Amino acid sequence: MNLHAMKPSTQHIDMFPAAWLERQQRRAQSDVPEVWDMLDQVKDPEVPALSLWDLGVLCDIEKKADGKLIVTITPTYSGCPAMEAMRQDIDKVLHQAGFVECEIKTQLSPAWSTDWMSPQGKEQLRAFGIAPPMPCTHRHDLPAPEGGMACPHCQSENTQLVSEFGSTACKALYKCQDCYEPFDYFKAI
Ligand SMILES: [Zn+2]
Fold first, then answer.
1. Is 131 exposed, middle or buried (0-12, 13-18, 19+ CB in 10 A)?
2. Does domain 3-116 have CATH number 3.30.300.130?
């Protein structure tokens, strides 16, 4: 058997990590698609374009026989201060939609990974000026300081790592050598 020939192309892996495909399937098979759609309006307080779904925080939505709604979320980084705000936003949206009985569960295992982000979410990060996380299969180290990381402003790969920590611990700071703009890279975890 030629294993090499069976390997999907790198581009395919980049666009659709298995973890993302699983999430997409869970949403597609849900009994309450309208609730998933409703929660698309809950955004990441740090990147307002990014919904909890796109960020990968929204794991599951279940409706019990008694009508009670159970929303499961997984925090991005432990102690992420944005999580409490997201919880409150979910609660608010559900109550406004008339769901009285709802519970928001926090699930820590499996741990959140940047592979859970939607391809659309990664595009939104780039549009916001943050280089999106590379797939975890490539995460071993930050790209070499000599470059290789595409600038979210001008797409040039002539970029340089300035600091392993950017505006937050989950980001690294880069600088573009072509447009001279500094930018954050959302580290893959
Ligand atoms: Zn640039």
1. buried
2. yes
